[in-house]
Design goal:
Elements: H1 2-47, H2 64-74, H3 82-89, H4 95-108
């Protein structure tokens, strides 16, 4: 009798496992079709031609880094302290923000401490 119960429990466990696999397999086609639809949309967006017409002006400087570089180009003979540069551009003057600017400018070879080095 115990052996029969063990085989019954094993069969019930196996049936449960098979039901879970069937549920997974039933959901898989819908998931694959949804992903396929997303990829079709992405392909359409990427294949869409850009604006045509006469050569347009370059895009405006939008990132903080580009704005900073523009300030250096606008005032080529002026050496900036990072705090002064941030104040001039209306950027935050907290230490983390200024440290990011310092490191970016240092990587590009811009002087961030007037009177030192250059």
């Amino acid at each position: 009798m115990t052996d029969l119960q063990i085989r019954h429990d094993a069969a019930a466990t196996r049936a449960g496992e098979l039901r879970e696999q069937i549920e997974h397999l039933n959901a898989a086609p819908a998931e694959a079709e949804a992903r396929s639809a997303e990829l079709v949309t992405t392909r359409k967006v990427l294949a869409e031609p850009g604006p045509t017409g006469p050569e347009s002006e370059p895009p405006e400087l939008t990132t903080a880094y580009q704005v900073i570089l523009n300030a250096f180009n606008t005032y080529p003979d002026q050496a900036f302290w990072v705090r002064d540069l941030h104040e001039l551009l209306g950027m935050p003057t907290d230490d983390p923000a200024m440290n990011v600017t310092r490191s970016r400018l240092a990587r590009q070879g811009f002087p961030t401490h007037p009177g030192r080095g250059h």
